[in-house]
């Protein structure tokens, strides 16, 4: 067993932080660590918090941490920003807002940016969540700012998706267009102290009608004022209620195995194209590529033929 694996499983916070850095850097040893921790994952409750910039996600996370810590529940937070290449300590705002939790061993907070590669972000997030799961966080919150597809991908890894909206913001229509309404398990109406609350509630209810969620689960609307820590116990109760629903309906198992299924397919894809690219670097399929370059064969037929040859060998 890799020494870092051992230390993660023993609850060593620095080992967990190191592993996440390895994940971000694509460090070769991360593979071994991820394989070894896998049997120790799947225990944490995974919550996704998404919404427009400035909706109050970090403030909500901050208030949730305080609430959960008062119940001795350990919390991991991955704050993902698909619009930022920065990572680690770079998201200063989040850092400062959640900083008073820093000396608490039951809280682990980490920011992740794209490092210029959006596609890798959801994969890195998933792996970082796994590290925190193995490390022993009972609840893991993934905060992500809303920018469409990347955010949807990131939310695919959690059990419960909470969408944060604000009164008077016009968020609802945007969220609807981006496909966010479909994946919402609950709506957090944050900044409930601002004007426009009733209008927003009506809007969401109308949107929910259009989207037509699975009839067995109606996403609840939770009102919060994160900065005053108002509504946080309600939010937690709603998360627990959703967890019960996931368990009792079997939907939770279904989601998790679907996510794993997708992950395997993604890895198969990656592995296949990696091997294929290696072969091409060694000169394989040169003729087919020339044919395409000369426009004698179209890329579709060429790719089909190359895959066929590849599989036959
Ligand atoms: N009035 C009011 N302001 C709030 C509330 N919650 C958060 N804010 C303020 O909204 C601003 C943004 O809060 P954040 O928690 O940073 O929001 P965020 O969604 O994490 O922002 P990004 O991560 O930058 O997308 C801050 O100035 C907060 O003080 C609330 O319930 N009511
Ligand atoms: Mg934030």
From TrEMBL:
<dbReference type="InterPro" id="IPR052040">
    <property type="entry name" value="GTPase/Isobutyryl-CoA_mutase"/>
</dbReference>
<dbReference type="InterPro" id="IPR005129">
    <property type="entry name" value="GTPase_ArgK"/>
</dbReference>
<dbReference type="InterPro" id="IPR027417">
    <property type="entry name" value="P-loop_NTPase"/>
</dbReference>
<dbReference type="GO" id="GO:0003924">
    <property type="term" value="F:GTPase activity"/>
</dbReference>
<keyword id="KW-0547">Nucleotide-binding</keyword>
<dbReference type="GO" id="GO:0005525">
    <property type="term" value="F:GTP binding"/>
</dbReference>
<keyword id="KW-0378">Hydrolase</keyword>
<protein>
    <submittedName>
        <fullName>Putative GTPase ArgK</fullName>
        <ecNumber>3.6.-.-</ecNumber>
    </submittedName>
</protein>
<dbReference type="Pfam" id="PF03308">
    <property type="entry name" value="MeaB"/>
</dbReference>
<keyword id="KW-0342">GTP-binding</keyword>
<comment type="similarity">
    <text>Belongs to the SIMIBI class G3E GTPase family. ArgK/MeaB subfamily.</text>
</comment>
<keyword id="KW-0143">Chaperone</keyword>
